[in-house]
Amino acid sequence: MSWTNYHCHCDFCDGAERPLAYVEAALDRDMSALGFSSHAPLPFPSTWCIGLGRWPSTLERYRTEIDSLRRLYRGRISVWTGLEVDYIPDLIGPSDPAFSGFDYRIGSVHFVGRTEVGLPWQMDDSPASFALGLEEQFGGDIRALVAAYFASVADMARLERPDIIGHFDLVRKYNSGSLYFDEGEAWYRELADAALRAVAASGSILELNTGGMARGYIDEPYPSPRLLGRALELGIPTTINSDSHRSADLDFAFGEAAAILSGLGYERVMVLGSEGWRSEALAKRGRGKPGLRPAA
């Protein structure tokens, strides 16, 4: 057995390369499974999702192309066709019937609040837009922003029950060096814990996501080791994903990620098979190429 990754983005959305490049890179790394998870169309213009104006035709082309790779590489690697679907109350969510028929759905929260023109505000667009949105949307109150974010994650888990919860604590993407808040403070832990308890009740898988590390925003995965430890206490299953937007990052820091899980006491991770999700011993992961964090 070897690494698996169910969260990657090709050029059907904001990824850098064609799907074939990711499959070939996964084979080069001796990975046993690769799941594509392009950003599902949003009900308003976006530069990083499958295009609204071409929906559902582009969505179908995406599904068709990944399915063709699944057939072409059968017996060498398991290829899965997933979607990363945003949760925006009253607008879109992972349980939307428009996104049925895929192998799995990752539910993620990228939007909280509203812009001055009434559109949902994307909180993770850039450090500058985060700082501006914090002032304009929440009056500079970081606790209010964090509370809104984790409340949305909790509602998504309760109402949508996606297969995987994407980058659980994305709200700390621009918080390196505790720029905005101390992640050890009681108020932050309490907000995160309430969302984790909702995830536990939903039955969803909580991914360990190394994407923020690959792109240089943070030094630890989503969720942080502190929150991963709490997730273990709550019995929440996990899987290791890289949220890669380049084929080179398919297994970014996976060795480090597995070591974090093992050190916290995790013994099993979730993998996808022909009969659905199942748990597998963590000790069986990573017998391919090491997937360590590349040298700077």
Overview of the structural elements:
There is one protein chain. This protein is α/β, with parallel strands linked by helices. The protein has one domain (4-284): Alpha-Beta Barrel (TIM Barrel). Helix content is 33%, strand content 18%. It has 8 helices and 11 strands. The chain has helices at residues 19-28, 57-72, 127-138, 142-160, 186-202, 211-214, 225-233, 254-264, and strands spanning 4-5, 33-39, 78-86, 104-108, 111-114, 120-122, 164-165, 205-209, 238-241, 268-273, 276-281. The strands form 3 sheets. A 7-stranded parallel sheet has the order 1-2-3-4-7-8-9. The chain has a two-stranded antiparallel sheet with strand order 5-6. Helix 5 links the parallel strand 7 (164-165) and strand 8. Helix 4 (142-160) packs parallel to helix 5 (186-202). The longest helix has 19 residues, at 142-160. The chain starts with a strand and ends in a 15-residue tail after the last strand. 45% of the residues are buried. The model has no long low-confidence stretch (mean pLDDT 94).
